[in-house]
Amino acid sequence: MNFSIKKICCIGAGYVGGPTMTMMASKCPDLIFNVVDINETRIASWNNEDLSKLPIFEPGLEELIAKTRNKNLFFLSNVKEAIESADIIFISVNTPTKTRGLGAGKSSDLKWVEASAREVAKYSKGYTIVVEKSTLPVRTAEVIGKILNSAKTNSNREEISFSVLSNPEFLSEGTAIKDLDNPDRVLIGGDNKEAMIALSNIYKAWVPEKKILFTNIWSSELAKLTSNAFLAQRISSINSISAICEVTGADIREVSRAIGKDSRIGSKFLDSGPGFGGSCFKKDILNLVYLAEYFGLIEVANFWESVVEINSWHQKRISEIIVKKLFGTVANKKLVILGFAFKANTNDTRESAAITICKNLLNEGANLVIHDPKVNPSQIEYDLKIKSTKSLDNDNSSFDQQSGNWEYVQSIDNHEIFNNAYAIIILTEWAEFRNLKWKLIAKKMVPPAWVFDSRSIVNTIEVNDAGLKLWRLGNGLAD
Ligand code: NAD
Ligand code: UGA
């Protein structure tokens, strides 16, 4: 089959759909990319003239949007039109963990994927390649295929036909543009070789052919879940060792460096931190757990579930250490939280360790003052489910009234945020937290004042010289 691709549609303009299509549009100027979303506010933000107001923050994204938007890249709300004209459709919608019903708490909620497949079934014309870009449970392609093919038989539209492919995305937030520009691999799973070649031709515009892997569709779906599970497992492993460091006098940074030199282990993903966050690690592992349980592989399920359990335990452990160091109580004490995003260089807070740790401290009655360079206060309010003391909204119905309080501070430049604080807690590794003027800051705080560094980014000598007490994750020789 000689299949020529001219128009691409992407359903879902989120952290994956937006940057991925932007990169493709920049590399393939002769193709048209229509990115659609049911969330009209999000589409409006993608179309905002002011590029600092794009819905997601990602280094390098603004420049690429400026080059491509309204040239061969369009952000639209008209799903029907974009599907009708597309030769290839990427499904890039959210797949969070189900919160109710069968498989609640573990399996992925596929209602957005199903809705997308139904839209494709309804509006597509002729032959269309449908690509799973979202991370999906193994064998979801079968479900998508059934929905698409039922449209053909039930609506007497004999002229329509489909190929379903899996093309999972491996970008990391904060480095999405770099990852998309130079991916370790592009994975394409399917059973229709022509369709796989057609999709790979888009990537070949900038990705070397040897990095493009073809597999069967189920291997591709499972490889994505496995990749995230292995990465998350490394973080839980190193974080569990950080707890051993703290009681034995070892130092986690030295341990990481030493084991990372083993080429079989490698040095990446060995930074101990406050626990993995982000929208995917937990949900993808739980998905794997659900799959294993479904097939009666209980030991396998337990093995992977422990990765998530260690992560939750680790966040609780950090919260408890903070309370214990501050003489067993943080009630009515001002604590400065530096960083709320789940990692640096993103405005995403989904599953951020900061949410759990802040909630635990608020539950102990602390008064938190929170600063993050890219997360806005309304997002923090949504995550904490506790209203800021500065909130303008008078409706308290969905917020917890019993705990301590919090407020957001826009800038740390004038150091006012540190006035009368008992502790500073660093939860995200933003560059601007690496070189703080500790001597000036120490003068503003209540002695004995603490710095809790969960990301190992402060200059320890300067903190100590300023007379501050320092706790660093995984440092067995600290106070
Ligand atoms: P997201 O929530 O940021 O974006 C998903 C978008 O899909 C939303 O804007 C939503 O409004 C839209 N949507 C939902 N149903 C729709 C429909 N029927 N029609 C049109 N639009 C619809 O999610 P995300 O972070 O972009 O993740 C998307 C998928 O990619 C998930 O499966 C995730 O696991 C996977 N993934 C995410 C990342 C990441 O770093 N965030 C990386 C790799 C893979
Ligand atoms: C992760 C994977 O790295 C991507 O390959 C994948 O595409 C994506 O999930 C997905 O499927 O959503 P992401 O969650 O964006 O990407 O970010 P990571 O860099 O993996 O970080 C995840 C969490 O682990 C963060 O909270 C980060 O701070 C933490 N982390 C990471 C550590 O604590 N230590 C490390 O050494 C690395």
Overall description:
- The chain is of the alpha/beta class and 479 residues long.
- It is 40% helix and 13% strand.
- It is built from 16 helices and 14 strands.
- The strands form three sheets. The chain has a six-stranded parallel sheet with strand order 3-2-1-4-5-6, with helices on both faces. Strands 11-10-9-12-13-14 form a six-stranded parallel sheet. It has a two-stranded parallel ribbon with strand order 7-8.
- 47% of the residues are buried.
- The model has no long low-confidence stretch (mean pLDDT 95).
- Bound molecules: nicotinamide-adenine-dinucleotide and uridine-5'-diphosphate-glucuronic acid.
- Uridine-5'-diphosphate-glucuronic acid binds at residues 135, 169-173, 228, 231, 235, 269-271, 273, 276-278, 280-281, 342-343.
Spatial ordering of strands, largest sheet: 3-2-1-4-5-6
The averaged pLDDT comes out at: 95
In what range is the share of β-strand residues?
A: 5-15%
- How far apart are the first and last residues' alpha carbons, in Å? 70 Å
In terms of topology, how is this protein built?
Layout: E1 7-11, H1 17-27, E2 32-36, H2 40-46, H3 61-68, E3 73-76, H4 79-84, E4 88-91, H5 111-123, E5 127-132, H6 140-154, E6 161-166, H7 176-181, E7 186-189, H8 193-203, E8 212-215, H9 217-248, H10 252-260, H11 281-294, H12 298-325, E9 334-338, H13 353-363, E10 367-371, H14 377-384, E11 405-408, E12 423-426, H15 438-444, E13 450-453, H16 460-465, E14 469-472
Parallel strand pairs: 1-2, 1-4, 2-3, 4-5, 5-6, 7-8, 9-10, 9-12, 10-11, 12-13, 13-14
Helix pairs in contact: 1-3, 5-6, 9-11, 9-12, 11-12, 12-13
The structure holds nicotinamide-adenine-dinucleotide (NAD) and uridine-5'-diphosphate-glucuronic acid.
Residues 11-17, 36-39, 42, 79, 92-95, 112, 115-116, 134-135, 169, 171, 173, 279-280 line the site of nicotinamide-adenine-dinucleotide.
